[in-house]
Design a protein that fits this description.
286 residues, eight-stranded mixed sheet
Amino acid sequence: MARAHVEEPPQVRLSDGSLARVVPSRFAGGWELEVAGTPQSHVDLDDPTHLHFEYVARMGAVIDRLRMPGQPLTAIHLGGGALTLPRYVAHTRPGSRQQVIELEQPLIDLVRAELPLPRGAQVRVRIGDAREVAAKLPPGLQGAADLVVSDVFAGAQTPAHLTTVEYYRILAGLLAPDGVLLVNVADGAGLAFARRQVATVRAVLPEAIVLAEVQTLKGRRFGNLVIAASAAPLPVQWLPRLMAAGPHPAKVAQGAELDEFARGATPATDADATASPKPAASLFER
């Protein structure tokens, strides 16, 4: 009996040899971008406010607190993926000016072809290493960003040079005086990497909170933690709203709790930084 033809999902090969492909999401509707078998992004073309991945939804909850509701933002995204958050910002804050830095041109070409941005979205993509390009952004963007998002992965790990004090100083230089940096940190048992990342970010931007699922923040399972940091104090009224926004069970660590979380951790520098830990392959099994 002849086998039925199964159409391959749209895919491209990246500079490191890995494959990036766009596949239907089996559990949430919409589409997922996978790189080397690791889910990188989820996009719902019919509803850009549908943020399926937990850590992205937590980032969205912080973005909702910035400025006045609906007010356009100046945003810089390091790590393109499927452009999930730029779509969210463009939809919830029309007129926002956004810059995306992505290493892989083929990945951006794939996303634009298969998951096109909505008309009117003011999103410029710059190709290159996140740190190198961020350091060379035009003077008009220096000190002007309401929001900077660092969510850069090579496969399932964040490269070491994007985890250091020197790197975060570059990003801090892009922020407006009360602008907010969001960092996606992936870690597992013990949270040694996450604790060091909190110490590193706070060495540059002292006002910080961490958002995560409760068991992840306790170091009981591998997951994503979101660091939100600024040079200016983060409004205290954010905290109950961020907790209520979920996804649940939600946890926001701040103040003395965050001091204790990072106790003993030394900031990472270019001389001693390491990439984020690699999760077990079973984490992504469906």
